[in-house]
Design goal:
The complex is a heterodimer of chains A (about 140) and B (about 375).
Chain A: E1 2-3, E2 6-7, E3 13-15, E4 19-24, E5 27-32, H1 34-40, E6 43-46, E7 54-55, E8 60-66, E9 69-74, E10 79-84, H2 87-90, H3 94-97, E11 106-110, H4 123-139
Antiparallel strand pairs in A: 1-2, 3-4, 4-5, 5-11, 6-8, 7-10, 8-9, 10-11
Chain B: H1 6-17, H2 23-27, H3 29-34, H4 41-52, H5 63-66, H6 74-77, H7 85-98, H8 104-115, E1 138-141, H9 144-148, H10 151-163, E2 168-169, H11 179-182, H12 189-202, E3 206-209, H13 212-220, H14 225-229, E4 233-236, H15 237-241, E5 254-257, H16 270-279, E6 283-284, H17 302-305, H18 307-323, E7 328-331, H19 334-343, E8 351-354, H20 355-369
Parallel strand pairs in B: 1-2, 1-3, 3-4, 5-6, 5-7, 7-8
Classes of the chains: A alpha+beta (about 140), B alpha/beta (about 375).
């Protein structure tokens, strides 16, 4: 789906800080959405914690930086970090060039896959959320 | 013919003194990361000579050369002709700002520091679970990177001061704004006044800075002269700690990165080493150290404007640290910690700390093991 120039694929789940999540076998893949990568500008650093790190839904577990912006990454579900995209160490710009593909960031082994239901999903919900976000950031 | 720009009026002779020997090339961190001769000091001086001769215009095409300098002063330190390149670059940037040819990231930094209290335009200054603006013997001044980007390093420094029972207070600090002088603008006197008022209100006779750049600004800039007039001493934390005993040592091999702002710009080389030798008997120097230290690539606005090259410079420095066989890389600047830690690859095992945070970690382990 395209909302005012931002691409937000319908099949994905979205965490409210603009990270997308999708199922891949037993794992969940996570990345930054198009709205966030456009707002942030050129991404220059992505913190890639060690695999096995315990994640608590809603708690910060990593940082992402563009030139003068620091973003916190919050766990979308409970679980543990299963893999990271090591290409981002030397080429964090993949998040800008292909945020839903080569720019994926983390893979998570969820404690309960059903927790994705707590995320924003479905055309109507995503549209409502993103329009509100566009309005919020336009005021700032 | 009358000089068109201030850089020419002030530095014409110095620019002409550049003998093009190229000693600067081997030590320039930007050249080291990019291998582009137009980006080292010699290349920049040649460009400025061409501008003075009227052969090329000072304009947007020169931004990537003249704004891509960390002002680390490694070139000046190695220049047999005595050309003070960082001062020339700072003036040229001001001239370029005046004619509207400024790198957008540098212009953004100025814009932020006219509206906000810190270089990141963050809304809220973290309090690190401590009271601010109290009466105390010492003020601990964190600096923007320590406050907003390297919170763990700052927590370590503050915990260490607590362990040492230092009577200090934090203040509602704002950016010292010294960096604006490096990026083509001028220090913001309003921000300086706010810091001065808040320091004076504490009654402290000493300001300890966690940031070498803030130390440099407080001790060198006239906007902070009132500190000297009132007899207030300013110390970088490495100077404050050098005579103290911590009662802890590490058996790990340790090396030390000299921050440019502390070393080449302020001449503080031995104080950090005096502390490190006490806590790390197995201390080794890197190939480049003291005045010959390699820049981490973060300074002069380069991290904000040219992040990729800035991180490439940090990776070169990390390689030198790894080549010593050290497990621990210490430094005394949160900005260096930030850039080096961001540059570190997952396969690299070396750990990077601000010295204060490392000492605090050793002391914490000692308490736990008792």
């Amino acid at each position: 789906m395209e909302i005012q120039g931002y691409t937000l694929p319908d099949e994905l789940y979205y965490e409210e800080n603009h990270y997308w999540v999708k199922e891949e076998g037993d794992l969940l893949v996570m990345g930054m959405d198009d709205f966030a990568q456009k707002m942030a500008g050129e991404i220059v650093f992505v913190q890639l914690p060690e695999e096995g790190k315990e994640l608590t839904a809603g708690k910060k577990f990593a940082k992402i930086e563009s030139g003068k912006w620091l973003g916190k990454v919050f766990a979308p579900v409970n679980g543990e970090l299963a893999a990271v995209n090591e290409e981002l160490e030397t080429n964090p710009g993949l998040i800008n060039s292909d945020c839903y593909g080569k720019g994926w960031i983390y893979k998570i082994k969820p404690s309960d896959k059903g927790e994705v239901a707590n995320l924003i999903h479905g055309k109507e919900a995503v549209e409502k959320w993103v329009l509100a976000e566009i309005e919020k950031y336009a005021k700032e | 013919m009358e000089a068109k720009y201030d850089f020419e009026r002030k530095y014409r002779e110095q620019i002409l003194q550049c003998s093009r020997c190229g000693f600067c090339q081997s030590v320039c961190p930007v050249y080291g990361a990019t291998l582009r001769p137009a980006l080292n000091a010699r290349g920049k001086m040649l460009l400025l000579k061409e501008v003075m001769d009227g052969k090329i215009e000072l304009g947007k095409e020169l931004i990537d050369s003249l704004f891509q300098c960390t002002t680390c002063a490694s070139c000046a330190n190695n220049c047999p002709s005595g050309v003070n390149v960082p001062e020339i670059i700072k003036q040229v940037r001001k001239d370029m700002v005046n004619i509207g040819s400024c790198h957008p990231a540098f212009a953004g930094m100025n814009e932020v520091l006219q509206k906000s209290t810190n270089i990141y335009a963050e809304d809220e200054l973290p309090d690190f679970d401590r009271k601010r603006d109290q009466k105390a013997a010492y003020v601990y001044f964190i600096g923007c990177v320590g406050a907003y980007r390297e919170d763990e390093a700052t927590e370590g420094a503050l915990d260490l001061l607590d362990r040492l029972s230092v009577d200090y207070t934090l203040i509602s600090e704002v950016c010292c704004s010294g960096v604006l002088e490096d990026v083509g603008y001028s220090l913001n006197p309003k921000l300086a006044s706010q810091n001065l008022e808040r320091i004076f209100a504490t009654g402290a006779k000493t300001v300890i800075t966690g940031c070498p750049y803030c130390y440099r600004t407080f001790t060198h800039r006239q906007e902070y002269d009132e500190l000297r007039k009132r007899g207030i001493t300013v110390l970088h934390i490495s100077q404050f700690l050098k005579d103290l005993d911590f009662g802890v040592t590490t058996d790990k091999k340790v090396t030390y990165h000299d921050p440019c702002d502390l070393g080449r710009h302020c001449g503080i080389y031995e104080e950090p080493r005096a502390t490190i030798r006490k806590i790390a008997p197995d201390f080794v120097e890197m190939q480049h150290h003291h005045a010959d230290s390699l820049c981490c690539g973060a300074g002069g606005g380069v991290r904000g404007a040219y992040a990729k090259n800035s991180l490439a410079m940090a990776r070169r420095r990390l390689k030198e640290a790894e080549d010593t066989g050290a497990e621990i890389l210490l430094t005394e600047c949160n900005s260096c910690v930030h850039n080096l830690a961001n540059a570190k690859l997952r396969k690299q095992n070396i750990k990077i700390y601000n010295t204060t945070a490392f000492i605090n970690e050793l002391m914490t382990k000692k308490v736990r093991n008792k």
